[in-house]
Structures are given as structure tokens and as C-alpha cells.
């Protein structure tokens, strides 16, 4: 009898060891725009490991975030829900306990789940993670050990979240240091010596994410599981500089997205995807049913067919992030539409208003001296445009607002209609008593948060799971 029991236990262990479900490494960076990587054409920043990963995987040219703000972006990704539907649409809010995460679904299905690095969403156990850890400065120092310490009889999902490339910038020997005079300054920013110095620190941290991407891939290959592991590299919002992070221009809401793994085709795709789609994608790849609460769609068809279309329209929102904001964006075809509920206010965040950042101070001083282009100076004036419309193909940095162009009127009406449908179907609304500014315009980041009403709160948006328009026809 004892012999039979041992045989049975051996067979069970063998079956567990033979679990062929795929693993996942989800590498989410902090504050990086696509244009900051050599994979997307930046010739000054070294990201060779990401180029190698991209060469054996798929690079997305049109991946968009639901918001360009740290914690609400992460809460949106982990739930597959728009920020105003999560109950955590503003900076520094934890995900409410009644919201379901895809990590919980994977954990329930037998996945071993890890979180290491920046969290900014809430209690790890409540989010569905078996283990959690953090480290500094990069947040990535423990990742390889996490992979080595995992149980070998379970597939795993690793949420590896770097602190890079968030301010303040810290240097070490894991990435090259850049000469400020040799860098290109993104055209929406003012080209000043302090700005260049900050960019050099920023790009050091961007390259450090590349270093750890290489370390992770080496470990996956060492363990012989690289071919059965999906590796995903993305960001939570755009670079932490004026007119980028928090903004609904592409410098804020567009994310790098590189995916490699089992049966993923190689190349680049123009297919439109949203960060709200990540959760449905992970669950489908793992063979786990998507919960009804999720509003995103799976992008699995694109992984094998670069011409596949899973959505024709993507939506993004801008809420409180140190300063009051309520803006919404619609992205479809060649067009980006931005609607501003409070045009009487400055359109700013800490990364574009606080003089503790040299790039910010230089930009506002240059505005006062009349040294900026109209696009660079836009955030320094009020009132702001109530509506903006851009052709992103002909105007990749969104410098020319066509909202008042007679030739674009039909497009403007179509975008307004899409936004209205999305707001109605997902329960979005403008709060009557919003969270107030945490500080004065140019003060250092400080002060207590006096939280007000949230967008969608009066319509009980946290109970709504309607996805809003996904195609132009519905």
C-alpha cells in the first residue's frame, strides 16, 4: 500500500512538473515614452537588449494608455477597467477591495504570482500576489532571484515594476551615462542646459531598464523556459517632463509595447491597442476565462497577425494629478481628439509646473522671455483650448490644433460623438466638487491631498462594466 501511495504521489508530482501553461514576465517601467528607446528610433539612447527582444517578438506602434498618471494607470491595467470605473482614478489612490484583478484570476487558476518593485496600487496580497518585494534604486535588483526562488511545479506571472525612470534620477554602474550636449531634446520641451542635464539622468535610467531586461532574458534562458514565457515591456505613462507625463498628447499616453513569447510573430504592427486590453490578453493566453468586470479586449489575434484589428478606437482620461484636471481623449484612425472640461484653468501637473524641476523652471522662464514656440508655450497660458484635434500622421507631436478648421469639422463631430457615447456607456462624469490643487503653481511638490468627488462617482461608475465603443460602428 505504501508503495502504491508513493507511486501515486510521484505521478501527481510528475503531472505538476509537466504543467505546460505559459509563464509571464510583465515588465512595467515608470515614466517612459516610446521615443525614449532605440527600438522606436532614438539614436542617442542605448537599449540593445530591448532591440534583441524586439527582434524575436512584436513591437506595437500604436499602444495607448488609459491615463498618463502612475497609480491610476496601474490600477486600470491590473483590472482591465477605465480609471473612473476602478474607483481609483486619481494619483495616490489605492484600488478598492471590491475591484477584481486579473492577477487574482491567474492565482485562482494555479499560477504563482509575484510583484517586485514599484507597487502604487494597494496591498499586494489583496491584489492577488503570492509574494512581493521592493528594492532601490531601480526596483529590479531582486527580479532574477525572484525567478530562481519560484516554485517549479507552477506556471508563474511576474509583475516586475521598475522605479526607473522616475524622478529623482540616481546613477549607478548598470547603465551608461550620457553627455547632455549630445542628446536630442524632444521638440515639445525647451532646449536649455538644465533640461539637457535632467534628460541625461533620465536616459541613464531608461537604459537601466534595458539592462534588467537583458538580465531577465538571460535567466529565463538559463532555466530553459524562455520559449514558454511571454515577455512584455511597457510603461505606465510618458516621460516626466513638460507636456509629456499626465498629458493626453501622444508624448503622455502612448506607451512602448514589446511582446515576445510562444507563437508571437516577429515584426511591427500598427494595430491599435489599449492598456485596458492587457488583462484580457494575459487571461486568454493562460487559458483563463475573462471576468465580466473587464472592459478591455484581447489582443491575442495581433500576436500572430500584425494586420489583425481588435479595436478601432481607444480612450484616455486625465484626472487630478497634484493639480485639478478633467480632460478626455479619443484616438482612432489618424486622429486624436482632446476635450477639456475646465479650459479656464492651467493645464499642468507637477512635472510641468513645479520649479523644483530645472526643465520646468527653464520652460516657464523661456515663455516669459518669448523664446518658446506656440506648442511649447501652450501649457503656460490660460484659458486653454476646450477642444483640440490633431492628425497624428502628419503632425506626430500634435503641434497644430485643427479643431477650428472647417475642413476637419466632420471629423470633429465624429470624435465628439464617440466621446459622448463612451462617457454615457461607462458612466464618466465631471465632478462638481473635485479634488483641489495640492499646492501653488510653481511650488515644490508638497502639501496634503484634500480629496473631493471623483469622476463617475455620481453615476456609480465602479459598478459599470460596459466597455464603451470598441469599433467605429458600435
Automatic annotation (TrEMBL):
Residue span of region Disordered: 426-474
InterPro entries for this protein: Alkaline_phosphatase_core_sf, Sulfatase, Sulfatase_CS, Sulfatase_N
Keywords noted in UniProt: Calcium, Hydrolase, Metal-binding, Signal
Record carries keyword Hydrolase: yes
Keyword Calcium: yes
Pfam families, alphabetized: Sulfatase (PF00884)
Molecular function, one GO term: arylsulfatase activity
Residue ranges constituting the Sulfatase N-terminal domain according to the UniProt record: 22-123, 141-288
EC number from the UniProt entry: 3.1.6.1
Ranges that cross the membrane: none
Signal peptide coordinates: 1-18
CDD domains cross-referenced by the UniProt entry: SGSH
PANTHER family: ARYLSULFATASE FAMILY MEMBER, ENDO-4-O-SULFATASE
Entry's family note: Belongs to the sulfatase family.
Protein's UniProt name: Arylsulfatase
Species this protein is from: Allorhodopirellula heiligendammensis
